[in-house]
Amino acid sequence: MEKEMSSVESLMQIANEFELTELCYSGEDFKLHIKTSPQKTEKKETKKITKPKLDTINSTGVGRYKFIKNGSPVIKIGDEIKVGTKLGVIEAVGIESALISPMSGTIESFCVENNDPVDFGKPLLKIKKA
Amino acid sequence: MFKKILIANRGEIALRIIRTAKELGIKTVAVYSTADKESLHVKMADEAICIGGVTSTESYLKIPSIIAAAEITGADAIHPGYGFLSENAKFASICIEHNIAFIGPSPECISKMGDKATARATAIANGIPVTNGTDIVKDIEVAKEKVREIGYPVIIKATAGGGGKGMRLTYNEQELEKNIISSQTEAGSAFGNPDVYIEKLIEDPRHIEIQILGDKYGNVIYLGERDCSIQRRHQKLIEEAPSFSLPLDVRQKMGESAVRLAKSIGYDSAGTLEFLVDSNNNYYFMEMNTRIQVEHTVTEMITGIDIIKLQILIASGGKLNISQKDIEILGHAIECRINAEDIENNFLPSPGVLKNYIAPGGYGVRIDSHSYAGYEISPFYDSMIGKVIVLGVDRDEAIAKMKRALEEYVIEGIKTTIPLHQKILNNKDYEYGNTSTKFIETHFPELSK
To answer: CA B70, B76, B79, B80: dihedral to nearest 10 degrees?
Structure first.
């Protein structure tokens, strides 16, 4: 009897773990049919996680993207930026072209490291739009 | 030898260069516009760099982006292919200034031959026949007087010209002034240089060109000639090698003229001298193309020489390892340029997705193409789908092979110029070699408008 009880408990655990509403078991010594009450499952509420919609700012040229100048960052994660904010430079053959923000928002992350080579259209920054 | 070559071009010629570079053990960098993301040259190169937007000015003509791409990838040489920046002396100079080898002639050679009036004067100075003509037109009344001496009809040409832009056929003095002005205007907007000159028109000529190769040590050889008379509005459709209509002694003289002119300017790469040949086999120097040409393939087929390979070796400082006596012409080669155009609708470009694509093959058939099933022929650039090149033991065999190859070529989803090529190949005058640059106009007037 003790053994059977422990088997039933294990099966109940499986039903709970996988959120099954019905489970049938046929063993050598006993048969089992478990039905969970619908109220129980309704009680279980799942929290909906809504990810913030992020936009990317892409490279407008070919070269090395530099967002650290003389050891200090021009921009960093968490910075509020506006349309027209300078986001560093794309440098090639000794010529620097400013990367200007086309949108307003908050810098969520960098897609590349400082001084990485980038080509046209390469995502550089992820922005949480204002 | 170079370690890494950046190919500043797209389409079939980019692939052509990547293939030879791979055979030479050289790494390759493809550059591409946002429209060419799915192109074969992007997939086949060791590295690929997007250099800009869809238009040529935003990408394939944007010198700073191309140089930057070479810098970030560590490319030590740039091959410009044909078109785009291939005959831009400024671009060649900029490459050299940034310690990147330009796989082509020196900027000085490009400048000298790129300006057609200067090229003409250089030819005259070297005793190479040119058609009777004028210098750059500065005064219309002086031009009128000179043309009276030359005799009508004449052709007005842009000194910076190419592809027929700025050209005006002129049959009498009443048209001359108007045509000079419209040619100057067109040349000014197309090339940024409004200068034009005038040449006597050769009626019904054949277009014969000589392929040359020069190195940095003063050696120049020629690899026979090509007949490119089958043209529509100055755009070549079919090219052949060797010439089937010219006596051997004339071909030899033309080859020697080409070598003389190239040597006189210290030409140090692959190049082509274009001539017009009249019905009495008199030849006249027209212009020089200081780059690889679309139709270089037919010369490769009959000589067994990989011209791109030698161009790369020469640019890296190598000496020409073959001399004139080593050049042997074997067989007859024909090339058909297959474009995405609607021949029944004034050759309107027919861009779109290739729903099905099966290239021909078999003995003696070569396909130089960047196309594949699912590839989209872009409306932003030239409409070439690919080149079919055949080699036969003689012209008859080559024609038969080309007819067979075109029949095999399956391209679905867009209109192509294959039906036009088939019409030409089945024409008796073409078969007998009765061709001139007027061939399309004469035999297919409905297609030449």
So the answer is: 40
